[in-house]
Predict the structure.
Amino acid sequence: MITENLEYNTTREKLVIGEYGRNIQKLISFAKTIENRDERTRFCHFIIQIMGQMHGYKEGGDVKRKMWDHMHIIANFELDVDAPYPLPSYEEFVAKPEPLTYSDSPLQYRQYGKNITQIIQKAIEFEEGEQKQALIKIIANHLKKLYLNWNRESVSDELIDKHLQNLSDGKLSIPEGVTLNTTSEILARTKRKKSSKQQSDSRHRSPKTDNRSKNYNDNRQKKSYYKQNRNQQQ
């Protein structure tokens, strides 16, 4: 019967890298059977050309090296040829990446984030003087701004100074006679930035978007007009 000659995927050899298909895998398996090393190498170069044509790979970069590595992986690292690149090892292929390390240290004040602690540590290393005092003032104003982003209510300079001392382990504090930006100044500045950003976005908005919003408003007005007329007729 004809069905006796049919092959099913369940009876075939498992595809190692599916993107190249079964024919490439068969060619690589055949290359392993070629006894002459030079002929085997030439045949593998021919396979590489086919692999590149299949996916439209362009010359340059690490594309060819990637295909040679894939060829050795498909061949189960049993292909002995003069490859233009170092042969990958099975140990490198099966090696698991090192686990990523995450910082387990809890944030003392979540509203300030993690980066501010690194900035404070750098400020601690500064020599005493006007430059360090100016930097402390900048950091304190930034803490106050971040606090107001998290909580819109007014915050005192004393509270910001306390948080700065806690974050720096008591090594930094707001210098005497230094006053921070007021809450109203910070909120007004933030509001101006948002307003200027919205204006910039509106200037760069495409005409197509403007037409959509205009058509949407026109349609709403028409629906409202028809609804009023219908109610009056009833």
Summary: The chain has two domains: 2-94, 110-183. DSSP finds nine helices and no strands in the chain. The mean pLDDT is 81.
